[in-house]
Amino acid sequence: MVEQLPQSPFTRLAQLLGDTKLGQSPIQMALGEPQHPQPDFVVRVLSEHAEGFGRYPPIQGPEVLRQAIARWLDRRYGLSGAATAGAHILPLSGTREGLFLAPQILGKRSGQTERPSILIPNPFYQCYSAAAFAAGYEPVYVNATRETGFLPEIDALPEALLVRTAAIYLCSPSNPEGAAADEAYWRRLFALADSHDFVVLADECYAEIYDHVPPVGALEARYRQTGSLERALSFHSLSKRSSLPGLRSGFVAGDPGLIGKFRAYRNVVGPALPLPIAHASAAVWDDEAHVQANRLLYSQKFELAQSILGNRFRFYRPAGGFFLWLDVGDGVAATERLWREAGVRVLPGAYLAQDTVTGNPGASYIRVALVNDFATTQEALRRLAQTLS
Fold it and tell me: pTM of the full predicted structure?
C-alpha cells in the first residue's frame, strides 16, 4: 500500500528547490501554517487543566468539549440542536486523522463485485488518496477547474462510476482554489448520495476563513434538505479557524450511525485528545471575537494582493481559505524561479493534483499561502509580481 501513496507535495518541493542559492532573504508562502496571533486565553486554560495530562482521556472527549462544539454548530449552521453532543459529534486529534480513518468505517457494499471507489476532487489534499488506498478503495479523481467553478462537476459523473462509489471527499472552501459549494450544489450532491448509497465526507477546515459571505456547510444543507444528517460527515479544525495548528484539535460531526462506528473504531486505533487540550479547545470553540479578528487580517491581505497583482496571473479573490491560486503558465518553473531569484517559496499546483488523461489540472498554477503578517506578505507579493511579470 505504501508504494501506492502519492508523494508529499512538500517532499517534492524540497527536491525541486534543493540547495538553490537565493538572491534574496527567504519568505515561506508554500505551507498553509497560520502565523496570526493565537487566542490569548489558550495558555491559561491549558495551565488550569494541566493535571489532566496525568489521566487517560475518554475517546469521545469530555462532555464540556462536545457541548461547546454542539453550540458552535448551532450558531454557525442553524442546526437547532440536530447535532447532539452524545450521538452526532466526535472530537479528533486534528482533521487529518479523521479524514484518513473515515473510509475504514464505511463497510462492505452488499452485492457489489467491482472494486468500490472513492471520489476525490482534483487538485486535492493528499490525505484523501492515502485514505482510499489504505481502506482498499480505488481513488477516482474528478477534475475541478476554472471551467467547473473549481468544484467537481458532479452532474457529469457516469452511472457506472456512481454505482460503485462508497464516498466522496469535498473540501469547501476548497484547497487550493478557495471555491465554496453553495446550498444548491450540496443538495445535488446529497441527492446523488441518497440515490447511489454513498457518504459525503465534507472537509470544512477553511469554513471560518471567508471573504464576505459565510459558506454554506454540508450539515446545514443536509438538515434543510431532509431534517436529518444522514450520509453526511463534516470535519472541522482549530488549525485554520483559530491559528492553532500545533494544538491538533478538530472534530467530525454528522450521521449518528457513522459517528457510532467512528467512535468504536477510534476506541481501538485512534488517539484520544488530551484533557487539557480538550478544555482549551472548548474555550476556543465558544469564542468568536478572535475568529472575527482573524478574518479581518486575511481580508486585508487579499485586498493587498488585489492591489499588487491586479488582473495578472488570472488573479481572483477566493470565496474562502487563505490561498492565492495563480495561473503562471508553468507552475513548477515559476516556483523554481521565484525561489532562486526572489527567495519566495510557493508550491507548484501540479504537486497538489493527479495527472489524468486530460492533463494535470494544477500544472499551470502556483499556490501562495497568505499566512504571514501584512508587511511580510506585502514584500513577498511585490517580489512575486516583479519576478514573474
Answer: 0.97
Q: For 108, which DSSP code?
A: P
The set of cell numbers assigned to 105 is 468505517
User: Cα–Cα distance between 176 and 320 in angstroms, integer?
Assistant: 10
Domain 2-37+290-388, architecture per CATH: Alpha-Beta Complex (3.90)
CA quadruple 55, 235, 107, 83: dihedral positive or negative? positive
- Are 99 and 130 a contacting pair, CB within 8 Å? no
Strand partners, 235: 203, 252
Closest CA to 150 of 334, 323, 342, 375: 323
Q: How far is CA 193 from CA 81, 104, 119, 151, 333, in A?
A: 24, 18, 12, 17, 40
Whether the pLDDT of residue 234 is over 90: the answer is: yes
Q: Where are the domains of the chain?
A: 2-37+290-388, 43-286
Q: Distance between CA 167 and CA 155 in Å, rounded?
A: 16
Q: Where are the alpha helices (DSSP H) in the chain?
A: 9-17, 42-48, 63-77, 95-101, 127-134, 159-162, 183-196, 218-226, 238-241, 256-269, 275-285, 289-309, 331-337, 374-388
**What's the pLDDT at 3?**
72
pLDDT, residue 1, reads: 62
Instruction: Classify burial at 234, counting beta carbons within 10 Å of its beta carbon; exposed 0-12, middle 13-18, buried 19 or more.
Output: buried
304-332 mean pLDDT: 98
Task: Please give the CATH topology (third level) of the domain spanning 43-286.
Answer: Aspartate Aminotransferase; domain 2 (3.40.640)
